[in-house]
Amino acid sequence: MTAPATPPFPGVGDAGPQRSFGPITRTDIVRYAGASGDFNPLHHDEHSAHAAGLPTVLSIGMFQGGLLGTYVTDWLGTASLHRFRLRFTARVWPGDTLSCSGTITEVENRGGQEARVVAELRCVRQTGDAVVHATAEYMWRRP
Amino acid sequence: MFEALIEQGKIREFALATKSFHPDFSGGQAVSPPTFLNAVSRIWADVPLDVAEQLGFDVSRTLHGEEEFIFHTTLPHAGDRLSVDVRITGRAEKVRRNGGRMRLAVVVREFRDADGRLVAEQRSTLVETEPPAPADEPTEEEVART
């Protein structure tokens, strides 16, 4: 698998390719728990989830946050990422299908070869509810 | 403060767990995915990093409001050894529109290299809702106002 090393210089209004993940499984959640060290039992133990009044285990916010990280680095690359901010707005459950999208909202030229590029990203559930919003800010250098 | 090592294998594991096959997250020159420092903090903290508990928040009612990562040079690379400082700022209590209370706190983590240069920062906003809150989450607007 390859991704573009340095995608072309973006412009305001450019949209990233829509991408979907899922349906999210308990295995996805547990795999992320292991990779991140987040062993809060509400994310993998049905008994704990029920005791807390939840219908079942819930996904880890940083898992879907990480999916937006995957989305933005496949779209805009890893070089010169300066800021990545996530806002969690709704929970995600096993069986949900998540869809990620993004748009360039700001390109501030910093003279010739460099620009500050801001992208707004969203991850939505199959119901249409947004579960995570993100802002990615790059200090872009023209190849 | 604790020391953390950015490891190639852990980066790979994290990338796969977040369904990424980006080549920059593989090999000896791998960089870390955008949210990887969150895992680094959990894995390398010298004491179990239960910040919600330290804050006196009920873990089962604590939600993640926001998470922000700032990189001052590049994304940290495999092989980097960073020292991590953790501090709690921005504690507040708010009354929600439905009359319920929520408590907030911001946890700031600073990642420095061997020369003491700040290479990355992580800011986590935690929200504790009132019982029986699980189905009753703060709205986006409420979180945004924090």
From TrEMBL, chain A:
Residues 23-117 form the MaoC-like domain. Residues 1-22 are annotated as: Disordered. Signal peptide: none annotated. InterPro entries: HotDog_dom_sf, MaoC-like_dom, MCH/BMMD. It comes from the Bacteria. Pfam families: MaoC_dehydratas. Residues 1-10 have a biased composition (Pro residues). Belongs to the enoyl-CoA hydratase/isomerase family. This is Dihydroxy-acid dehydratase.
TrEMBL record, chain B:
It holds the Pfam family FAS1_DH_region. Residues 122-146 are annotated as: Disordered. Residues 137-146 have a biased composition (Acidic residues). This is FAS1-like dehydratase domain-containing protein. Gene3D superfamilies: Hotdog Thioesterase (3.10.129.10). Residues 4-122 form the FAS1-like dehydratase domain. It comes from the Bacteria. Coiled coil: none annotated.
